[in-house]
Design a protein that fits this description.
Layout lengths: L28 H34 L7 E2 L2 E2 L3 E6 L7 H10 L3 E7 L8 E4 L5 H11 L3 E4 L7 E5 L9
Parallel strand pairs: 3-4, 3-7, 5-6
Antiparallel strand pairs: 1-2, 5-7
């Protein structure tokens, strides 16, 4: 329990709240609401900045942009998708690996249950034609088809009657 102290001259003065420091002034309800609003704003700003900063960092680390690798005027960093529609399901991965061994980028190999009548290479843009010609040299004679609405930039479609190089 606190001990009583003797009254001195400062205790006898009336409280003068207009001339005291801010730390000693009594807070009104308005002051408390303004303080709560600033704290809420700062919390939202810091939380959103941290969340979106983390999302941006994760996105950059998980899917980095490919570096363009130009060899003899051909951008060999363009992703190539191999689609095996031969009906045998035996050429997709081996042809994808053959392209990978040649230094090309093959992120996807797909297998279709339908059979295509002929093998071809579908390109989205005319600028991919030199790379498609390089693929023709590696995999054998295929028709190059310009198809702007193709799902992938370059699609190597293996159809019925396809034979692997060296078979």
């Amino acid at each position: 329990m606190a001990k009583d102290k003797p009254t001195d001259s400062l205790d006898l003065l009336d409280a003068d709240y207009e001339h005291v420091g801010r730390h000693r002034a009594r807070k009104t309800a308005k002051d408390r609401w303004v303080e709560l609003a600033w704290l809420t704003f700062a919390s939202v700003l810091l939380s959103a900045g941290g969340y979106y900063g983390l999302q941006y960092g994760v996105a950059q680390l998980s899917s980095p942009q490919p570096t363009h690798k130009i060899v003899n005027g051909i951008d060999i960093s363009t992703p190539i998708t191999v689609i095996d529609a031969t009906g045998t399901r035996k050429y997709g991965s081996s042809m994808g690996q053959l392209l990978l061994d040649a230094g090309l980028v093959v992120p996807y190999t797909r297998y279709l249950d339908i059979t295509l009548t002929a093998s071809s290479i579908h390109i989205q843009d005319e600028s991919y034609r030199p790379l498609a010609k390089k693929i023709v040299k590696l995999l054998g004679n295929m028709k190059i088809v310009l198809k702007p609405k193709a799902k992938y930039p370059i699609e190597v479609r293996l159809g019925k009657g396809f034979t692997a190089p060296g078979e």
